[in-house]
Amino acid sequence: MKFTHNLQFTIYDLYFAVCFLAVGILFASCHNSNTKSNQAVRADSALKSHVDTIAPKINYYTSIITSHPKDANAYWNRGKLEMLNKSLAPALSDLSKAVVLDSTKSEYFYSLADIDFLTGHTHEARDAFETSIRLNPRNTDAMLKLAELYFYVKKYLEAVDLINKALKVNPYIARGYFLKGMIYTEKHDTAKAISSMQTAVEQDPNYFDAYIQLGLLFASKGNSLALSYYDDAIHLQPNNPEAYYDKGMFYQFGQDYDDAIKTYRELLQIDSLYKNAYYNLGVIYNVNKSDYATSLDFFNKAIRCDTAYFMAYYGRANCYEMLNQPDKALTDYAHAYRINPKFQAAEVAYLQLKLKTHK
After folding, report:
1. What residue numbers bound the domain in which 244 lies?
2. pLDDT digit string (tens) for 51-90?
3. Which class for 301: exposed (0-12), middle (13-18), buried (19 or more C-beta within 10 A)?
4. Rg of the chain's alpha carbons, rounded to an integer?
């Protein structure tokens, strides 16, 4: 049926996109961007404890600065603490002051570049990283961060050159190989990407992100070795839903629906507000098991997680249509289209059902 085919295509199209996109380097991404998950609640609690610990240290350096207003080291230390505290404007002010007071310290420019990069001031970040490297030609942290910046703006040759320079200083830096792997992934050179990521985990067997990327790379080839890398990631971080989701997608794409269901349910034990897991379960029960009542329940749960989740409304509409409840189906198709007017499948489904119910 046309509607269920569209439902399934969206999942598989997303799967290919995930396999070939460079994810997780420059900014945190998650599959539940519009929800505050249980994991986020736990993170908020940890952050409060973190803030309570940092505040006295900030006060300590403030007292030093009050007594010695030209102490560059005090500004630098306070700026780093403010970064940890996510107080970005005060951090930028303090780190800028540190480099003005003492322009000979590589580590000062590195910290300044780091916050410039974090706040999207890429030109300023580039200049500060370059100064940091000039002051200390063995500063591999600055080299790799500058390489990351070049990766971000798609200057891959410059990025690889910097990574190679860092690895020449220290050939055991796992992040260098990881960044190379991400560049090769962006360039669709899967063989080199896999080789680089495998070297990264050889240097650091606890490199969670590298295992995730290896899983995605092997998944893009339809290779079941992806599962072993996802399992390695789960072993390292059993409460992180990312590997479970990617593993479930691999099973789903490979038409192993029972294992996909099992994996998504395991994920939901960790994070009960993970909307895409509910959505994917809804797709499986709709398209592959023709269990529309169960599918409807999962789409309802996805919508409760995110009331603007237009694909979940579309999926729920299809369930209502299959359950011979056309009025509810029309309402949901229309709502999906209102949320995202570019989602033409919802408009087409609405018009087709409208014509059918008025014959």
Report:
1. 1-30+238-359
2. 568 999 999 999 999 999 999 999 999 999 999 999 999 9
3. buried
4. 25
